[in-house]
Amino acid sequence: MELPAQREPDRVWREICAQLRQIVGDSTYDIWLAPLHVVSWDGQVLALDAPAGTQAWVSNRFGRVLDACAQAVAGSEVRIAFAGEGPADAGSPPARGLELDNDFNPRYSFEQFIIGEGNRLAHAGSLAVAELPGQAYNPLFLYAPPGLGKTHLLHAIGNYVSAFGGGACVRYATVESFTNQFIAALGSRSLDRFKHAYRDADVLLIDDVQFLASKAKTEEEFFHTFNTLYETGRQLVLTCDRLPQHLHSVQERLRERFESGLVAEIRPPDLATRVAILRKRVALDRIDLADPAVLPVIAQRVPDNIRALEGALIRVVAHHSLTGRPIDAELASTVLDTLYPSLSTPALSLESIQTSVASHYELTVAELVSASRAVRIAWPRQVAIHLARELTDCSLKAIGEAFGNRNHATIVHACKRVSKRLLSDPAAADELAQLSALLREADSDRPA
């Protein structure tokens, strides 16, 4: 058994993060804990660093749960410390959207956002308002179910304006934090300071406006804040889990203002986009995959929520760290079978795979299964064999017989060649993911 002190800090931290996300929830984790990173690790003390202005609050608010998760992963003597940790201001949270102008998650950038058919308009609108605040689409209203990237785009706008906005003042707040700050300002008779903090913003980013419902005083204050910024040409970006007209408990005058700019939907990503999201996360976290075919397996299990998709990857990586098993399709299936059971769709046929792959590469099925070793045929044949192994219930012997009576070793070799190429060739990986998605879609459209 590997001792805690012998384990790499990044591995230990990934396992801790997997537990933290489960305990505190996705939204809290993404905002406060995802930006943390490891500074040092001596086997007993894991030293972390946090973005400027948040360290004392994170230490005070999450210190116990951080220690508990660290001890669960690496032993009862382990504890968490923060680099340069001090007692000052440990008892009160940073005033998000008040004193802090740039409290944005650096991982939530436009560069890290994967564009697909379901989010193209929302991404384009967000980039436009980041480049030209108050001039492109005002307000910009992004709506989608939870976990599809609304908060990512808000932070991306904040990061972009902070970096390239020439000193423009950008504020971010959830409706919950806006409400809490408003109530605190009323109680402390500092309402003018609260109004100044929000109404002097050049760009105001507000998350989860559906929670304005049934908060009469907060809604009134938000209405006047909205009007002040809009009438003076400042940019507003709002996110919600539904269309403005479906916010039945929100005042009609606010709903009308939400609809007055660009309303952009974010839909669940297709399979190819989900695979691309996972590949980006793998590169960002420097995760070593034994077989890149693991990514389509994970992507097929989690179709509707990006947070859950990344969470599934984290669970697989954590299991790898704990057991030493390679990160491959077999491990992913083992880890995810309980939480995300495989969809009960009938297995594809070898004939449908051969036909689709041959058509994609402008070959005939006869050429695909022939003995030819020409480059134009060899790679498509290997792709078809790989897909046959992944998407059907056929044995290696049956696959070999369908591909020109090839033997077991040849089929295994073809699969290994595909897996090796996918590690170094993102275009080939994208192509395979798209083929897999097209095959499944075509199969699901067949009459029963």
Would you write up a description of this structure?
This protein is of the alpha/beta class and 448 residues long. The chain has four domains: 79 residues, 2-Layer Sandwich (GMP Synthetase, Chain A, domain 3); 146 residues, Rossmann fold; 66 residues, Orthogonal Bundle (Helicase, Ruva Protein, domain 3), CATH 1.10.8; 95 residues, DnaA protein, C-terminal DNA-binding domain (Chromosomal Replication Initiator Protein Dnaa, Chain: A, Orthogonal Bundle). Helix content is 54%, strand content 8%. The strands form two sheets. A five-stranded parallel sheet has the order 5-6-7-4-8, sandwiched between helices. Strands 1-2-3 form a three-stranded mixed sheet. The longest helix is centred in the first third of the chain and has 20 residues. The radius of gyration is 25 Å and the shape is globular. The N terminus is likely disordered.
Short overview:
With 448 residues, the chain is an alpha/beta fold. The chain has helices at 9-24, 26-33, 55-74, 120-131, 150-164, 175-187, 191-199, 216-231, 252-258, 271-285, 294-301, 306-323, 329-336, 350-360, 365-368, 375-391, 396-402, 408-424, 426-444; strands at residues 37-41, 45-49, 79-82, 140-143, 170-174, 203-207, 235-240, 262-265.
**Spatial separation of the terminal alpha carbons:** 51 Å
Structural class of the helix and strand makeup? alpha/beta
Would you count the extended β strands for me?
8
Q: Helix-strand pattern, N to C?
A: HHEEHEHEHEHHEHEHEHHHHHHHHHH
- As for the CATH topology of the largest domain, it is Rossmann fold
